[in-house]
Amino acid sequence: MIKHFITERRSWILFFLLQQLILLFGAYVDPSISLSAVGYFVFLFSILFFLFLFLRYQKETIYYKQLEERINDMDPSCLPTARSPFETIVEKSILEQTQHLNQAASKIRTEIEQEKDEMLSWIHEVKTPLTALHLMIQRIDDKSLKADLTYEWLRIHLLLDQQLHQKRIPFIKNDLYMENTDLETLLFSELKTLQSWCIQKGIGFDLDLQITHVLTDTKWLAFIIRQILTNAVKYSDDSDIRIKSYEQDERTYLEITDFGRGIDARDLSRIFDKGFTSTSQHHDQASTGMGLYLAQKAANSLHIKISAASKLHDGTTFTLVFPSKNEFHQIMGM
């Protein structure tokens, strides 16, 4: 802060020093003026001037030090009290800007909330004809046509579900309900939805659940697993997908392994990035780059660590690590 003060008062300091040099120069060139006497007064004035500067520094920087140290939380009550006309001008400007920004932020929040509500309403309205369409598809006798239509219906269903959860994720904290979740029931429910697609692609499932219950939010865990299973089925053919749960270091692990096309090593660190699809399969139009991004955001809110290991053309393993009971109670107690 002292550096800023000296920079701000630099013109004053230079003006004072120039005055003293003029006095000394006048005493030097004029024999009738005692150089020692002038030098004495210059020395005395210099002490008084720098003492004055020190006192002004102490007084004038109080407000700006408090302004610099305040938490920038848009709360006008945190502003320090102005004690001078210039400080009052600064305070007034900050208050006006804060009020303007708060109004703009409130308007944006209202618009986002309204957009979210409209989108959720639209998705729920679309689900009704989509359910009716699924019932109509089940009545088709032509197995090949039925399988194709079911696959396209499932794609629309999954995209709508992803869009629904994408709109809900910013408000996920208000939507969490922690309970003892049955992994087996949850997995069978998700696999049943993908059944027709899996039959079409010749994909089976191998389940080994040593741990059958976890403490988490059932709905959001189902969404996370749905994104991983959808990718596993999408990029696999004529193979099994292995799902295994076990306990290690008082934590529950859930592993989902497919033997599909795998992920290139250079892409592995980016698969959870928003909008990222692939560099090796960049022509793939079926990928949105949103599924794993949303899955990780939901997992973070549930304090679940999600990671992936993969080898190109050999398959991919996604691992979900649930917090231990002690960690969970600490988290919930915050």
Automatic annotation (TrEMBL):
Catalytic activity: ATP + protein L-histidine = ADP + protein N-phospho-L-histidine
Entry EC no(s): 2.7.13.3
Enzyme class, first EC level, given as a word: transferase
Localization of this protein: Cell membrane
GO terms of molecular function: ATP binding; phosphoprotein phosphatase activity; phosphorelay sensor kinase activity
One Pfam family matching this protein: HATPase_c
Domain of life: Bacteria
The keyword Electron transport is assigned to this record: no
Residue intervals of the Histidine kinase domain: 121-326
Transmembrane domains' residue ranges: 12-29, 35-55
GO cellular component labels: plasma membrane
Gene3D superfamilies with a match to the protein in the record: Histidine kinase-like ATPase, C-terminal domain
GO biological process, alphabetically ordered: cellular response to phosphate starvation
InterPro entries assigned: BphY/WalK/GraS-like (IPR050351), HATPase_C_sf (IPR036890), HATPase_dom (IPR003594), His_kinase_dom (IPR005467), Sig_transdc_His_kin-like_C (IPR004358)
Main localization (coarse): membrane
This protein's UniProt keywords: ATP-binding, Cell membrane, Kinase, Membrane, Nucleotide-binding, Transferase, Transmembrane, Transmembrane helix, Two-component regulatory system
Topology in membrane: Multi-pass membrane protein
Protein name: histidine kinase
Organism (species): Fictibacillus phosphorivorans
